[in-house]
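Exercise 7.
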Amino acid sequence: MGEPVNVGIVGCGAISAQYLQTIDRLPQVRLVAVADLDLERARAAVSPYPEVEVLTVAELMADPRIGVVLNLTIPAAHAEIALLAIAAGKDVYCEKPLAATGEDARGVLAAAAEAGVRVGCAPDTVLGTGTQTARVAIDDGLIGRPVAATATMMTPGHERWHPNPDFYYVPGGGPLLDMGPYYISSLVTMLGPVATVIGAASRTRSKRTIGSGPRQGEEIPVTVDTHVTGVLVHASGVLSTLVMSFDAAATQAPRIEVHGERGSLVVPDPNHFDGPVLLSGVGDDGWRTLPESAGYAGAGRGVGLLDFAGPGEPRAGGTLAFHVLDVMESLLASAHSGRSVDIGSTCERPKPVALVTAGD
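Solution. The predicted structure, written as tokens, is:
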């Protein structure tokens, strides 16, 4: 193993703690500095890591030690920070989505290509043993030719627990842009890129009430669809039915199921890295759990940075993230027009991940 990749984080909000814990146990990655508009928040985030410096955003971008900028800002700032990193000649790995709009994301990829730097993007949960074991089962023919899939995420909304949920209900947010990347990235990893979408959407309430924290009881406006459903027609011909909602109390539907001519899989929650993969073949009496056969075991958010420790297109890469964003925007466009929409982008299925413990 060569020298670790030096990383600087921009954005020290709630999600940063999970990344910090993962980076701390990855010998291939070294956290050098963090930056945030609120320097006190940045200092608090890295208080358990005294060797990590707290810088302004401009100082972090100019720091010659840093090779990768980890962009953990809110979606509306993703493109701006990514472009600053690219202009500084640094690789950039971004929280999902790649940008608030497809147009902004296209600009990020174009700038990176011109500068000769790489772009990665969450979710990297697809690199865990859950999705990767399911992918191996599909590739090995355990369910025969894939025919269909379902992906379901239904909750009452994040304002119940998040103290500052405003960004979930403005463009770049909503259940589809917030949670869809996990589900669609998993579907594309298992079943390949999407060619066409057909969608429908609704918005149940114009306001939401914050349920916790210092702003508890405050109402915030809702300017995005809060229930989105549709069919993704994969280039392979597989039909995936997607339901993303902030308008349901609860659900017992499996997070993801994949159905083939000879069997069906239950795939674990793509918002997590692991979980049991269940298989039932035609004529079987019930389900059996498949052994973990692929993916990073014991992974956490930020494991996608391991791909930046090696050459080539990252598995959690910009091309995949752009295709997923294109699918989501096209699904919303279809919902509003009442017509199917062809997807303008495509991507390769990311390379499979051999079974290995994260950090080895």
